C-alpha cells in the first residue's frame, strides 16, 4: 500500500495519530499519512474535505505544514527518505509557523452586487485595517485588484499567537 501525505508536524510524544491516520517519524518530525492505493489521487470534493478535516484536527494540537492535495509515496521508506532529505527546510518552516496565526481582511459594501466593491472608501477601509494589523504582523500580503474586484480590498497577515479577540470582528462598518 502507498501513503497519502496530509502534512508534516513536530513529533509530539504526548499525542498519537488521529483515527484513520498514522505518523511516519524521523527524529523530531512526523509525516501525517494514510494508506491509499498507489495511483493518482484526483482532488475531488471528498478527498479535499478529508484533507481539510485531518489538517484542521492536527492544527488544533500544534503547527502543521500541509501538503498539496494528492501527494502519494510508495512506502514508509519513501516518506522517511523524503523527511531526511528535507529535514532542515521542514524544521525551519515548522519553527517559523509555530505560534503564528493567519488572518484575512476582506472589505465590501452591503447592497447590490455591482456596488459591493466600488469606491475609494473601500480602499481606505482596507488600508486602515491593514495598518491596524501591520503593527503585530510578521508578514503581510495585499491582493492586487482584479477585473471582478476593482478595489484592492483583501489583505492577509501572519502574526504571533494568540490571535486577538477583535480579529474575528469587523474593524469598521460602512454606513451604507
3D structure, described in words:
The protein has 176 residues and is of the alpha+beta class. It has 4 helices and 8 strands. A hairpin with a 2-residue loop joins strand 2 and strand 3. The protein folds into 2 domains: 96 residues, no CATH class; 69 residues. Strands 1, 2, 3, 4 and 5 form a 5-stranded antiparallel sheet that branches. It has a 3-stranded antiparallel sheet with strand order 6-8-7, covered by helices on one side. Helices cover 29% and strands 27% of the residues.
Outline the fold blueprint.
Layout: E1 2-10, E2 22-26, E3 29-36, H1 45-59, E4 64-66, E5 72-73, H2 76-85, H3 87-97, E6 100-106, H4 120-134, E7 137-142, E8 154-160
Antiparallel strand pairs: 1-3, 1-4, 1-5, 2-3, 6-8, 7-8
Summarize the structure.
This protein has 176 residues and is an alpha+beta fold. It folds into two domains: 2-97, no CATH class; 100-168. Helices cover 29% and strands 27% of the residues.
List the secondary-structure elements in sequence, H or E: EEEHEEHHEHEE
Please, how many domains? 2
Tell me the fraction of residues in β-strands, as a range: 25-35%
Helix content: 25-40%
Regions with little confidence, pLDDT below 50 for 5+ residues: 147-157, 159-164, 166-176
Based on CA atoms alone, the radius of gyration comes out at: 20 Å
Number of strands: 8
**Category from helices, strands and their pairing:** alpha+beta
Number of helices: 4
- Sketch the major β-sheet: 5 strands, antiparallel
Kindly report how far apart the N and C termini lie. Answer: 58 Å
Amino acid at each position: 500500500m502507498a501513503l497519502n501525505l496530509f502534512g508534516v508536524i513536530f513529533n509530539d510524544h504526548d499525542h498519537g495519530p488521529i483515527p484513520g491516520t498514522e505518523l511516519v517519524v524521523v527524529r523530531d518530525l512526523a509525516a501525517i499519512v494514510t494508506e491509499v492505493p498507489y495511483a493518482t489521487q484526483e482532488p475531488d470534493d471528498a478527498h479535499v474535505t478529508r484533507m481539510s478535516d485531518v489538517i484542521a484536527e492536527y492544527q488544533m494540537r500544534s503547527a502543521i505544514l500541509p501538503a498539496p492535495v494528492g501527494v502519494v509515496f510508495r512506502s514508509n521508506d519513501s516518506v522517511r527518505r523524503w523527511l531526511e532529505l528535507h529535514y532542515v527546510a521542514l524544521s525551519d518552516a515548522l519553527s517559523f509557523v509555530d505560534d503564528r496565526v493567519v488572518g484575512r481582511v476582506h472589505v465590501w459594501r452591503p447592497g447590490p452586487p455591482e456596488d459591493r466593491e466600488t469606491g475609494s472608501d473601500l480602499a481606505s477601509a482596507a488600508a486602515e485595517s491593514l495598518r491596524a494589523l501591520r503593527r503585530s504582523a510578521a508578514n503581510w500580503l495585499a491582493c492586487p485588484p482584479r477585473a471582478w474586484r476593482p478595489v484592492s480590498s483583501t489583505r492577509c497577515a501572519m502574526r504571533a499567537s494568540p490571535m486577538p479577540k477583535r480579529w474575528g470582528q469587523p474593524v469598521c462598518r460602512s454606513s451604507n
